[in-house]
Design brief:
The chain is built from seven helices and eleven strands. It is an alpha/beta fold.
């Protein structure tokens, strides 16, 4: 069974296929998972594994741990490309997410001023002005949109909010005025006896229409790379991803395949 990946608040650096040498920040529990989605492909497993006992890392604890790590890396002459908010759940659920972002920016400027700061978010909390304000401060504001069709979003992402729907999140993503990167997981297979496939013609057309509305700086297309909690999912191979990307590029969308 796939379970939580990260047992520390600050982890890595690890090699990210999309971002390079990445030092991770896990704001969610080190012994459990808290997320507003329950994605069938999540490498950290399903939410049913529980939230653990450690709780969400307080802002001061994050700042102290990050400064300790960055100081040691700087002294050792270690390379670093990016600091990435990721981990065992949705980082923007942290009650002081904006304050943590401010601390990370200050520490980045002190130790590795050329390094970029990324947030991997599932887009569920961008109805909150304070979250939007914080995301606009980071270099790579990476927001999820795995489908522009409601039925598919509910099948793949399993949102905790039953009112979560494609058009609402697309409108919220538009409010960033292009100051965002859209990340889309492409996959095929089955889940609970239902076909999963967001690479079909209707799905591609719906995504293209959404990207045109959002006008992101970039779209990241990717597929499965690690074990998933749903064993019947299949990776979309790179040739297929590139073919889909070309459809989007032809419409003027900047796309990176990873």
């Amino acid at each position: 069974m796939v379970t939580i990946l990260f047992h520390e608040t600050i982890f890595g650096p690890i090699h990210s296929r999309r971002l390079g040498s990445s030092l991770g920040i896990n704001l969610m529990p080190n012994d459990g998972k808290i997320c507003s989605f329950d994605c069938i492909y999540c490498e950290a497993g399903y939410n049913a594994q529980g939230t653990g006992k450690a709780g969400i890392s307080p802002r001061e604890e994050v700042r102290t741990a990050l400064e300790k790590k960055l100081s040691a890396m700087k002294e050792a002459g270690d390379r670093l490309d990016v600091i990435t908010f990721s981990g065992n759940g949705e980082p923007t659920l942290h009650p002081d997410f904006g304050g943590v972002v401010d601390d990370v920016i200050a520490l980045r400027d002190k130790y590795y001023p050329a390094v970029r700061i990324s947030v991997l978010s599932n887009s569920t909390m961008i109805d909150r002005p304070q979250v939007v304000e914080a995301l606009k401060k980071v270099d790579n504001n990476i927001l999820k949109l795995d489908s522009a069709i409601d039925e598919t979003i509910r099948l793949i992402n399993v949102p905790g909010n039953k009112n979560f729907n494609a058009q609402t999140v697309i409108e919220q993503l538009k409010a960033f005025n292009g100051q965002c990167i859209i990340q889309t997981m492409m996959l095929r297979g089955e889940h609970n006896g239902r076909v999963v496939d967001n690479t079909t013609e209707p799905e591609i057309e719906a995504l293209l229409a959404a990207y045109r509305e959002i006008q992101p700086k970039e779209v990241m297309l990717y597929s499965l790379d690690r074990p998933t909690p749903e064993s019947q999912l299949k990776k979309v191979e790179r040739d297929d991803l590139e073919a889909i990307a070309e459809r989007f590029r032809a419409a003027g969308i900047t796309v990176v395949v990873s």
